[in-house]
Structures are given as C-alpha cells and as structure tokens.
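step=encode ok
step=design start
structure_in=
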C-alpha cells in the first residue's frame, strides 16, 4: 500500500492523476470532525452532516457508515467513522480502534484510492506526527495477510493508495519512518506465523543473513562448535534433544558514532517448544511455534531501525534452537554449567527459555552495552498475571523502566512494570547446583526474571515477557508483531537523547 499526503481535501479531490474514490472522515457524538469533513460537507449541501446526525452510526469507536455519493460529487464513496461520544475525549485506544476498523472496511471494499482524514480527530494530547504514524500503522495492520503456506494466495484488495490530508513540514519523513516500522512489524509477524517445520534455527539464521545483506548490517552466526568453545553449556543443553542444530545470531547496526556504547537486544528463539522431557500437554501445543517471537521481534526491530537510518548503535542477539524430547535430551535433575560459570540444576526441561537466554546475556557483556533488553515468550505465569494487553516489564533500573513504559504508551505497544527483587530469587535455591531453573508455581514470571537477573550484573538490563502479547489464540490466531513498535520507539528515544548529548558536548567545547 502506498501512502502520500495532500495539503487539503480540495487539492486531493482535484488532483486529476489521483482522483480518489473513497473519502474517510471522522465523526464524534454524531457530528463531523475536522476541516476536511467540513469542506466535504460544504460540497454536498450538508448531506454528510445529516448522515452523521442520523443515528445510523453507533457511538462506539470503529463503527462505520459507508455511502455512495450522488452523481457529480468529488468522491464516489464516503465512509464516516465513529471515534466515540465526544471529540474532546477521544483516547489513544479509541483512535487506534477506529482507524483499524476503517482500514478493514476500506480494504473490504472496491475503492482503489482513498483519502483518510481521521487523524484530524486524533486524541487532544497527541500531535500530528503521532496521528499520521498511527494511521499508517493501523492501515498496514488491517492489510496484513499471511498466506505463505496456502497453495493459492487470496486475491489482493483493491485499495492500493492512501492519501492523508496534511501539510506539516516533516510529513514525508513521518510516513517513511512509519512504513519502516510497519515493515519491521510485518517481518516479525511473518516469522512468528511460519510453522516450526519451516522456521527452524537455521531458517532464522538465513533470514538474519538476508536482512543483514539488504541493510548492510554486520552479521555473525555461531554454530554448535563455536558455542561449545564459548562454554555455552546451558544453551547447548536445550538443543540436545533436537535433530536441528542450534544457531547463535549476532547482528550489528552501526548508525551512531563509532565510540558510542551499543544498545543490545536479546531475543528468545525457541523455534518449537515441546517442553522437552518435561513434555507439554497436546492441547494447543501447536502455539509453541510462536516461542521464537522474541527472536522475531529482534529481527523486526533491526529491520525497522536500519530502514529508518536511526543514528544509534544497536546489536541484536538471537540464541535459537528447538526444545525436543529425545534419547540425548537433557533430563530433569541434570546439572549444566553456563557460560558465566554458574551451574544450573534443570528441574524442569520446559523452563528452557531462561537456559538459552542466560548464555546470550553473558555473551552480551563483551559489547560493554549502554543497556540490554531481552525479549521472550518466557512464562505462562506472565499471561496469568497480565493477560494479553501489557507485556511484562522486569528491571531494577529506574530510567529503563520509565523509558520503556513511556515508549509503550507512545506506541500503543504497552508494557507494565513487575517486581524483580532478590526475595523472589530465593525460590531458585538448589541442593545440588548454584541455582535451579525453576521456582514454585507462585510468582512464576518473577522468579524467571530473577533467574535471568543473575546473569546481567555487568550492565543495565530489562526483561520483557511477551508470552501474553506476541500472538493471539482462537479464531484470529496469529502473531501480533509485538513488541517491535515498543522497542523501535524506545530506540528512537535513545537516538534522540544521544544526539542531544553530542550537541551538548560540542557547544561546551566551543565555549571552552
Ligand atoms: N514458552 C513457554 C512459555 C509460554 C507458555 C508462553 C504458554 C506462552 C504460553 C516456556 O518455555 C515455558 O514452558 N514455561 C513454563 C515454565 C515453568 C515450567 C516453570 C511455563 O510457563 O509453564
Ligand atoms: Mn517451555
Ligand atoms: Zn518456551
């Protein structure tokens, strides 16, 4: 889908080459909202205002009314979209829901070119860049299809060009950044949706290589021998039951000054989690193909920031393997030695995510990171705690918590702080090794985070448990692409503040 801007609706309707056949306008409390809607209403003697007032559209954000316009009108069709009861009270969620619903309705119709002016009724506290970015993101979300595994792909929707009514100076850049982010989110969804027999550790490695070639990233992929040489005994213990070889992917994006400490992302890449010898029950086990969504979010974020040309150094690390039962598989009670030297008693082979992450977190030390964020579908307990709305955020570093929470609000890809204090870590005592890989049932998401914390003493660190947010179950089963938007927004913030620091030192130097 192509996105363009038009300075006014008048201009959009007269530009011959771009004569659009659908106009999408906001309504709140039965009244048209924004300049575009007022202008269009003037063109048809108040017909649109009548429709808005008619009660045909529900007050619920996302209710739509699609009408054909009389002959001779500037637009063939108009879609009125409700943003709620009151224009002054439109929330982020109302706006995002309404835009998604409008996108779905537009994509289901016959129009090839549309003009969207919903952002003229965006939440009062948000600026136009926010509204434009989220319009693009929601429309791309509505347009996302996964038919890589179908023998015949569904026919393409008619809608292929969307014009947004706006004449702000930075519009072109806003659209480009939004599309870069949407591309990153789509990549994460695609990787998540691929089945475990296609999306194997070596498949992830090949996609990482491809991405790195496309965007000129430095990419290293370590095989089993190299992991052995690095003494990644914990990671390797998870891979033992599988016929698929484990891979360790490291991608470097160098958009910042050479001496700038990198931000490091570490994503859990279990391409299928059977539970291992501590086998999971059969029901819904298919969903464990999504157990690499942390890895997918790292690849998606690397793609987004590279395409954005973000001025920041970022390293993406993906430890990836399958968790399978087998004659060589790790057994409950086995003790392994992690790269950090700490020994781990594996009481439950289904708590494998932390076992691959801990070695990746130790590996990350060599980069002297400014911060490390790991992303993992780590625990069912996190789904119990937070449901499917917020990602669990675990960190004892206050700035990181504040920045990630803020990036979540800004992007609509939210996270919620959870505790990680030492007291919970006591549940991980082992009679036979330095630490056990599971605590009891109580506070399972927190004890998992406490396990990881033992390997992250050398730098500022946050952990995102995306078990509840990375995919949807049920009829709309599929990967959500979360938390690519959260991570990208957070990194954009880091790039902006490091640019400010650079400017600060330069002016100080000049003064001296
Ligand atoms: N990948 C799962 C976590 C998971 C479960 C994500 C359900 C999404 C939905 C993870 O590897 C796992 O199996 N965790 C165990 C840990 C337990 C054995 C301490 C869990 O949550 O049951
Ligand atoms: Mn598991
Ligand atoms: Zn898992």
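sequence_out=
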């Amino acid at each position: 889908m192509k996105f363009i801007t038009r300075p006014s609706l008048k201009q959009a309707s007269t530009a011959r080459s771009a004569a659009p056949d659908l106009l999408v306008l906001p309504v709140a409390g039965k009244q048209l909202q924004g300049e575009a809607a007022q202008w269009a209403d003037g063109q048809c003697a108040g017909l649109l205002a009548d429709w808005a007032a008619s009660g045909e559209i529900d007050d619920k954000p996302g209710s739509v009314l699609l009408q054909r316009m009389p002959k001779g009108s500037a637009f063939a069709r108009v879609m009125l979209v409700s943003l709620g009861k009151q224009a002054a009270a439109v929330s982020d969620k109302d706006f995002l829901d309404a835009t998604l619903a409008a996108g779905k309705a537009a994509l289901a119709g016959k129009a090839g070119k549309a003009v969207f002016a919903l952002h003229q009724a965006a939440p009062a506290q948000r600026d136009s860049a926010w509204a434009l970015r989220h319009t693009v993101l929601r429309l791309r979300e509505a347009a996302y299809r996964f038919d890589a595994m179908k023998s015949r792909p569904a026919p393409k929707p008619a809608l292929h060009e969307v014009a947004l009514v706006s004449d702000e100076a930075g519009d072109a850049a806003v659209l480009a950044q939004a599309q870069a982010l949407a591309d990153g989110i789509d990549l994460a969804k695609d990787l998540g949706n691929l089945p475990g027999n296609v999306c194997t550790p070596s498949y992830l490695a090949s996609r990482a290589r491809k991405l790195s070639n496309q965007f000129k990233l430095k990419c290293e992929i370590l095989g089993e021998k190299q992991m052995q040489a690095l003494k990644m005994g914990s990671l390797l213990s998870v891979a033992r039951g599988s016929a698929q070889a484990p891979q360790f992917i490291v991608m470097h994006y160098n958009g910042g000054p050479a001496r700038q400490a990198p931000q490091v992302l570490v994503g859990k890449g279990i391409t299928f989690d059977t539970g291992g010898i501590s086998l999971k029950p059969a029901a819904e086990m298919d969903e464990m193909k999504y157990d690499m969504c942390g890895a997918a979010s790292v690849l998606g974020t690397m793609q987004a920031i590279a395409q954005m040309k973000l001025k920041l150094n970022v390293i993406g690390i993906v430890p990836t393997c399958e968790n399978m039962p087998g004659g060589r598989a790790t057994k409950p009670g086995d003790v392994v030695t992690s790269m950090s030297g700490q020994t781990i008693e594996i009481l439950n082979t289904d708590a494998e995510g932390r076992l691959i992450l801990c070695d990746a977190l130790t590996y990350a030390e060599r980069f002297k990171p400014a911060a490390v964020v790991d992303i993992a579908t780590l625990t069912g307990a996190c789904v119990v705690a937070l449901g499917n709305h917020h990602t669990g955020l675990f960190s004892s570093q206050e700035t990181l918590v504040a920045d990630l929470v803020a990036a979540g609000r800004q992007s609509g890809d939210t996270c919620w702080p959870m505790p990680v204090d030492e007291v919970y870590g006591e549940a991980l005592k082992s009679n036979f090794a330095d630490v056990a890989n599971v605590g009891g049932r109580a506070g399972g998401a927190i004890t998992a985070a406490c396990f990881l914390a033992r390997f992250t003493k050398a730098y500022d660190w946050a952990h995102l448990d995306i078990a509840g947010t990375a995919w949807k179950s049920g009829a709309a089963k599929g990967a959500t692409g979360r938390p690519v938007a959260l991570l990208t927004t957070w990194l954009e913030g880091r790039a902006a503040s490091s640019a400010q620091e650079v400017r600060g030192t330069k002016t100080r130097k000049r003064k001296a």
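step=design ok
step=annotate ok -> The pocket of manganese (II) ion (ligand 2) is lined by residues 273, 275, 323, 350, 352 (CB under 6 Å).
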